[in-house]
């Protein structure tokens, strides 16, 4: 996934509640959250086992850019 596509995906979702955590996203929906990348991926795979999530870290600075 390119940077432009990732930026569009992040802009479409309110990530404020997930600051400081890893989130897994499938089809513009958050499908998993965790303190580590692996936790978020596993939570997502539990919800949607056939789909591969995009896993990103949500830094505090990203949320506080208002």
Provide a compact summary of the structure.
The chain is of the alpha+beta class and 66 residues long. The chain has helices at 3-12, 37-47, 60-63; strands at 21-26, 29-34, 54-58. The termini are far apart.
Q: Order the strands across the largest sheet as they lie in space.
A: 2-1-3
Mean pLDDT across all amino acids: 89
Please compute the radius of gyration using only Cα atoms.
11 Å
Q: What is the total domain count?
A: 1
What is the beta-strand fraction? Answer: 25-35%
Tell me the major beta sheet: 3 strands, antiparallel
Total beta strands: 3
Termini distance? 26 Å
Give me the strand/helix succession: HEEHEH
Specify the helix fraction band: 25-40%
- As residue ranges, the low-confidence spans are none
Summed up, the helix count is 3
Structure, explained:
The protein is an alpha+beta fold. The protein has three helices and three strands. It has helices at residues 3-12, 37-47, 60-63; strands at 21-26, 29-34, 54-58. The protein has a three-stranded antiparallel sheet with strand order 2-1-3. The longest helix has 11 residues, at 37-47.
Features:
66 residues, 3 strands, alpha+beta, 26% strand, single chain
């Amino acid at each position: 996934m390119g940077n432009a596509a990732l930026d569009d995906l992040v802009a479409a979702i309110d990530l404020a509640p997930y600051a400081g955590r890893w989130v897994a996203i499938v089809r513009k929906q958050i499908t998993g959250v965790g303190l580590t990348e692996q936790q978020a991926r596993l939570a997502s795979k539990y919800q949607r086992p056939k789909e591969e999530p995009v896993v990103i870290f949500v830094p505090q600075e990203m949320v506080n850019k208002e």
